[in-house]
Amino acid sequence: MSAQKKNLPHDLVRHDSMPLNKNEYFSLWENWNQLLDGKRTYLRPPKDCRILSVSGVFRCPDARPRTLGCQEPLLDLVQDYPDNDILQEIIKILCQRYVHFRRTRGDGNYFYRAFFFSYLENLGQMQDSQAEVTRLMEHVAVSRQNFCRLKWDKAYFLNPEEYFSSVVSELNHLVNSVANGLSSDELYKRSLEEIMPLRIISLLRLLAETEIRNREADYKSFIPEKMNVHQYCYKEVRPLDVKPTMLAMRALTYALGIPLRLEILGRDLMAGHLQVKRLDFFPRSETGKGAFHMAQSYWSSTSTPEPLELGSGNLLSSDGTPSLTLLCRSEDCDILYR
């Protein structure tokens, strides 16, 4: 240890983080050693892996892309498909209605991350944001009651109700911070953190699972025949590394009462014209507390989709369509901006 300390530079520069001096670095190193107590975990790099480069830059052994990117011009997305003329044309059609997009990390949580960050952005722009927070937390309270009525595997939850309550408390604090004026820059910085967003993402997954299991009759026909509802949720909804299904997306929007529009980047053709497939999840009532339903439509560069009679509300645009709009690609889910 003494020889290692002797050869270290005065400051350790970390990518995308504040520099550490030697004392701070070794204090953290010793704390982690005590916490791990010799156990092998994904946090511990391989024995021969250098985490301190010759230049003195401290590098994460398996650096991961950021959970969220910055806003980019939507037209730049064509560069992701240099050999696909069809998808390039679809993107150009989307550019008629959207100007920017924001990437999310392509892991199993991309939908939940995009959905919640887009919601928080919209919340911060509302005139009556506190009323929206009240509405949201009322929906969460109903889901909590339903959650507590379900049976949960103790191997997964030591204390299901305690865990649910603790993460709901974090959710409540975050949405109230945004409603009370948290800046968009600070919101973005917080969303780049790993631990708190992951806990909230786990809550979003539980909300979707609770919705599916409590309304089994509504969802059973969409679940593979060889699975029951509980097995489906255990395998396809709850695990953090599992990519979202359309059923899970639908269940989450219904559980929280949040209208959502999905623009799907695909290869849809009609009468020889490329079209964009669109899915809208929205409430029947203006209050957002009634039954939900889904609408599917197509639009192209030569056609204008008929307006949907969605009513009005904080989460609907001036034309009565969902404010939250995501772009679904094969392995990604991005946030779209009009």
UniProtKB/TrEMBL annotation:
Xref: Pfam families: Peptidase_C65
One Gene Ontology CC term in the entry: nucleus
GO molecular function per UniProt: cysteine-type deubiquitinase activity; ubiquitin binding
Q: Which CDD domains match?
A: Otubain_C65 (cd22749)
A GO biological process of this protein is:
protein K48-linked deubiquitination
Source domain of life = Eukaryota
Question: What protein name does the entry list?
Answer: Ubiquitinyl hydrolase 1
The species this protein was found in: Aegilops tauschii subsp. strangulata (Goatgrass)
